[in-house]
Amino acid sequence: MPVIVREDKTLAIARDGYEVTHLLTADVIGNDQIELDHVAVYADGTFPVALDDGMVGWLQILEGEGSLGDTALTTKHITYLPFGFTGAFQAGNGDVRILFARVPDAARFDKNIADMPGALVHVDWTREPVLQSEHDARKRVYMATPGLAGTKAFKGEMISYPPGTAAPEHHHVGAEHFQYVVAGQGTAMLDGVAHRLCAGDVLYNYQHEPHAFINESDGDFVFVEFFVPGPCETVWSPGANLCAWLPTGVDSAGNKPAREIGYHVHGQDGGI
Question: 214: closest CA among 182, 167, 261, 272?
């Protein structure tokens, strides 16, 4: 069965300069596929960012700004963390909210994991091309791909559902994945049963579990979703439109994007 974690119902553990909420752990999802934390770093506080042996991961700024290493980071950035990374995130003069994700024993998901860059890689995802759904009003921006992160151990994207938008039911084979709601509220249809999701909620889907989303609110419903491992097969429920994505030629600010991504079907995105 899918797992829903309500961030506002989960205990936040206070530390010196920050607090951490463990959203996805082995105890919560029943395996060690992924670990996900929400971290609130207080103004001028420091959060230690460290990976256990064999882990890779990523860090996404949800609110505020700070720095990791020598790089200033804002809500425009996602940072891919290589094997054995140890460092510290330094908050600016305001509070910062972060998603901090790790993939334990990442080599089991990517036999070429050693080819992942050994240094931090920071990507301004707002410069990535916006893609438009072929059959509805959804939009997508890739957050992590083999071309961006240098590994197939994980893959991620941000999906936006304007008011009144629904997506076709489907399931995945070969990967598990989660959605973290960044903004708004929407309905997750999980094997035909409706579940309300709001900002800060996490939905974890195992393989073979049918799911779809509907936005019945009057504002955008936005989530980031990440797959572990990245490659997987998407299977559409009978009668559902195959989900394909069209280039728009612009980034999130309406400018020419940092790269071009052509028409493709979800799950058949290769090494984008």
Answer: 167
Q: Is 168 within 8 Å of 104 (Cβ atoms)? A: no
Sequence spans of domains, the chain: 8-124, 127-265
* CATH fold for the domain made of 8-124: Jelly Rolls (2.60.120)
Query: What CATH number was assigned to the domain covering residues 127-265?
Result: 2.60.120.10
Contacts of 66 by beta carbon, 8 Å cutoff, 6+ apart: 41, 72, 73, 89, 90, 91, 92, 96
Per-residue pLDDT reduced to its tens digit, 66-76? 999 899 999 99
What average pLDDT is seen over the chain?
A: 95
Q: How far apart are CA 211 and CA 173, in angstroms?
A: 13
Kindly report the pTM of this predicted structure: 0.96
One-letter amino acid at 221 equals F
Cα–Cα distance for residue pair 151/229, rounded to 1 Å? 9
Tell me the per-residue pLDDT of 115-138, one tens digit each, with 9 for 90 and over.
Answer: 999 999 999 999 999 999 999 999
